[in-house]
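> example.struct
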């Protein structure tokens, strides 16, 4: 990031910093007990000066966290633990992750769900089509008639760069984390938890694809990446026989989940009454995508139970691959997260 960019970003945040200062002074006047109880009322520093208050409200801050591996600042939406708890909960987006916002505040109000909790909510922004992994080569992102390259080192960022920032500024213990994701994010959640068992105590996949190297899946992933941004699957892990493809398949990457609390869910893809409000194309595609997720999730569960993993599975009778079932899962697992992480 250039000096000019840093100064420009810092200038935009002067108002937010001033607001944070006024809030802190107000709390001090009210009493030290209130100031201590509320861990959420002040903006933390970030790569461009200070975090911003996010329009999602519920004390969510938008923080630009510098990633040396990606050579840019990565926006992360963070809701601090209400009473200074040291547990963290990562929520990952799906294939069409937005570069400016997260679906967890656009389509599901995760900050509201965890409004009164003592866990820090961590919602990375961006990473469309990335599977939150480290790519071998830059991702070529196509948008209309233009295209640009971007470095994808999401695993490094989430496991090695972001935890230090969260510990320093939000008090999150690098070894006390839960992680969940939908669709692509569900695949990544189980992978990251298995590959970094010291970081995550709990992992949840909602409509994830949990056997990415089974026959036909690489072709389907290739088509999905093209459709979601013109990505080239070969830029991710190289050739179709690259060992890294198998190392990042949740079906072949389970041992690191031993002793963890693991939760998986998927639906049949059958339409619910609520799904009937969606466009016909979304319903048809949503049925196919969810049915595929269900097949791979069932296969993953059978193998996981066979090797003795602690797995809870929830197979819903209906619901397409859409935010209706993911929002439901988020609320359904809320008490599970808070209980397992001792973050009430």
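> example.seq
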């Amino acid at each position: 990031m250039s000096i000019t960019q840093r100064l420009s970003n810092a200038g935009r945040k002067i108002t937010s910093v001033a607001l944070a200062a006024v809030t802190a002074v107000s709390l001090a006047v009210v009493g030290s007990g209130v100031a201590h109880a509320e861990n959420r009322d002040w903006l933390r520093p970030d790569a461009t000066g200070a975090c911003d208050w996010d329009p999602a409200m519920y004390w969510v801050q938008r923080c630009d966290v510098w990633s040396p591996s990606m050579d840019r600042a990565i926006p992360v939406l963070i809701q601090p633990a209400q009473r200074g708890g040291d547990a963290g909960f990562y929520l990952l987006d799906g294939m069409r992750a937005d570069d400016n916002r997260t679906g967890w505040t656009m389509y599901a109000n995760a900050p509201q769900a965890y409004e009164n909790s003592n866990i820090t909510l961590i919602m990375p922004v961006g990473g469309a089509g990335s599977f939150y992994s480290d790519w071998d080569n830059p991702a070529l992102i196509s948008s209309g008639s233009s295209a640009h390259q971007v470095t994808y080192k999401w695993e490094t960022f989430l496991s090695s760069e972001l935890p230090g920032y969260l510990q320093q500024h939000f008090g999150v213990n690098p070894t006390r984390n839960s992680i969940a994701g939908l669709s692509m994010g569900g695949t990544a959640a189980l992978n990251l938890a298995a590959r970094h068992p010291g970081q995550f105590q709990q992992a949840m996949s909602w409509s994830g694809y949990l056997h990415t190297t089974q026959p036909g899946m690489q072709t389907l992933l290739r088509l999905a990446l093209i459709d979601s941004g013109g990505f080239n699957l070969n830029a991710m892990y190289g050739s179709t026989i690259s060992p890294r493809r198998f190392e990042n398949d949740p079906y072949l990457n389970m041992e690191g989940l031993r002793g963890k609390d693991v939760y998986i869910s998927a639906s049949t893809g059958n339409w619910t009454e609520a799904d009937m409000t969606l466009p016909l194309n979304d319903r048809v595609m949503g049925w196919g995508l969810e049915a595929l997720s269900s097949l791979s999730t069932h296969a993953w569960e059978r193998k996981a139970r066979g090797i003795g993993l602690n797995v809870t599975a929830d197979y819903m009778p209906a619901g397409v691959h859409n935010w209706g079932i993911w929002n439901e899962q988020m609320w359904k697992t809320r008490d599970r997260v808070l209980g397992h992480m001792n973050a009430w």
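> remarks
DSSP finds 13 helices and eleven strands in the chain.
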